[in-house]
Specification:
It is built from 15 helices and 13 strands. The chain is α/β, with parallel strands linked by helices. It starts with a strand and ends with a helix.
């Protein structure tokens, strides 16, 4: 049996959900998992309920803090040295840095990293972007397998030279057999009415919604601006999720020209998604968003920003609509088109549901993980 230590900064959000789904998919007769994280919410309880060992220490922080980060590397190195896992599997940039350095120091025989996206993007200074790329390249030298969530992420990793091309594997986000939910839901008149009741919305309201953390990456300011730009009193904007920009987003929502409802973190996303007439993702940068895949699996038409691996899911005019990031005016225009063209919206939503159902399965993720943990690379 191989022991696998999964390291992630926060066991929450799309990356947390995907990490946990991967852990729970493993054959327990062949792999013994432990999750090491700095924080988490309901997913920690869910992991424990499934018998997964959890180690939580807030020394692993999401924000960059050189003093605390050095302590985190030392603490994790000591932990890995004592436990001697066969595999260390890190997720996202921050845990990927701390975890891979600690695994290297502890002499862990196999290191796997999942690129859910990248810490560098077009909305930061060139100097910062170059620094992040340099760090990722150095870490890639002792990463045995890089699992890239989506084709766009894999292409960027190879183009930037973050890891040797032969060590790159492309994976998707599983939407069937989702943790704590019976995915995919079917969008029906009954499920939509029930979802609206859960959100406290009236049956006659058109709902443009999204799911994600309230962070700079997810661009809640652009979402609020897009809802305002619609200029339609029959539309309400709904954001499911919390984060460090919660207070600022509340302030923006209060000044919006039409209603925007902030629902906070919820454990029943599967149940509330059918309330959405359109799912609108305004992110500035992404990997392959779990929320978009789940909206598609639920039969909700999607408008998203054309970033990273999002086009794996959203093929313009076929499975949804794409707009540039940072353009809430164009986001509003695309959303308005789908609201005003229900036949087109339904056609795209049905195509998206078929595509997601065929490509993004939990069995595929399990196979990719087991190959990454066992391969001779």
């Amino acid at each position: 049996m191989s022991s696998v230590a999964t390291v992630i900064t926060r066991l929450e959000g799309g990356a947390g959900v995907m990490a946990l789904r991967g852990v729970l998919s493993l054959d327990r007769s062949a792999f013994e998992p432990v999750i090491i994280t700095g924080s988490g919410g309901r997913l920690l309880d869910l992991a424990s309920a499934h018998g997964v060992e959890i180690i939580v220490d807030p020394v692993i922080k999401a924000t960059i803090d050189p003093v605390t980060d050095l302590r985190a590397v030392r603490w994790l190195t000591s932990l890995l040295t004592d436990r001697k896992p066969d595999v260390v599997h890190t997720h996202c940039a921050k845990a990927g840095t701390i975890g891979r350095l600690a695994a290297r120091r502890a002499g862990t025989p196999r290191v796997v990293h999942t690129y859910h996206g990248f810490p560098f993007h077009e909305f930061q200074s060139r100097a910062r972007r170059r620094a992040y790329i340099a760090v990722e390249r150095r870490l890639g030298r002792f990463t045995h397998v890089g699992l890239c969530v989506g084709t766009g992420v894999a292409v960027e990793a190879i183009r930037r030279g973050l890891i040797a091309p032969e060590r790159v594997r492309t994976i998707g986000v599983p939407v069937d057999g989702a943790t704590g939910a019976n995915w995919p839901r079917r969008l029906t008149t009954e499920s939509r009415a029930a979802a609206k009741r859960l959100l406290g919305l009236a049956d006659g309201e058109l709902v443009v919604g999204t799911v994600g953390r309230l962070t700079y990456q997810k661009a809640p300011d652009d979402f609020v601006a897009a809802i305002s730009a619609l200029g339609r009193p029959d539309v309400v904007g709904v954001w499911v999720g919390s984060g460090e920009l919660a207070e600022e987003t509340v302030r923006l929502a209060r000044t919006a020209r039409q209603r925007v409802v902030l629902c906070g973190e919820r454990g029943d996303v599967a149940d509330v998604l059918p309330a959405f007439d359109v799912f609108a993702m305004p992110s500035r940068y992404e990997g392959l968003p779990m929320a978009v895949a789940e909206a598609m699996a639920s039969g909700v038409p999607v408008v998203a920003t054309a970033v990273n691996a999002v086009p794996d899911l959203v093929e313009p005019g076929v499975t949804g609509l794409l707009v540039p990031p940072g353009r809430p005016d164009l986001l509003a225009s695309a959303v308005g088109y789908l609201l005003d063209s229900p036949a087109e919206a339904t056609r795209m939503a049905r195509a998206a549901r078929r595509r997601v159902g065929a490509r993004y399965r939990l069995t595929d993720l399990r196979s990719a993980l087991e190959a990454a943990y066992s391969s001779s690379l």
